[in-house]
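Lab notebook, bench 4. Still working through the backlog of constructs that have no structural model yet. Next entry is a single chain of 161 residues. Request: give me the structure tokens for it.
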Amino acid sequence: MFSAFRKAATEVTIFHQPFSPSSQKALNMLRSAVSGPYPPNKSTSPPLDFKLEVVEAPPTPDQLKTIMSYVSPNSTLSVFLSAHPSAPSGSEAPQSASAIHNIAANNPNVMKWPIVVDWTKGQVSIGDVEGVQSILETLRKQRDGELPQEEEVHRPKGWFS
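Model written out:
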């Protein structure tokens, strides 16, 4: 009856390309963090508690816009583009989230992989395995009580609280 009042689990999505070694490494890190002790060198530590979604496609235009809101304010859409020779640059660089999505859907080599997003905390790592470690470390600190507790959004407020 009151299950709607429970705090939702953290949602983490990895936009993954199997041909990318850094994407493979990030996916393995995320899977091991949710299925085994974290950090891995402490066998008595419990796994991290988050919902992992693996998407083998580029983010949608709406997802790209949301991800951009998590990135530094000075960043442009080119943050998603790789250094691959086929990636557009300069005046040819895409100017919209839809254009980035379309280019990446047609040629995955132009995109930096992986893109890992913690939708709950608003953290993102684009093409960077160390950024994934940072996201996992934030989740560990939250689990271990090293971060201030967020006020529960779904907690009813009123006379009896």
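Notes after review: The CA atoms of residues 91 and 109 lie 19 Å apart. The radius of gyration is 18 Å. Flag for follow-up if needed.
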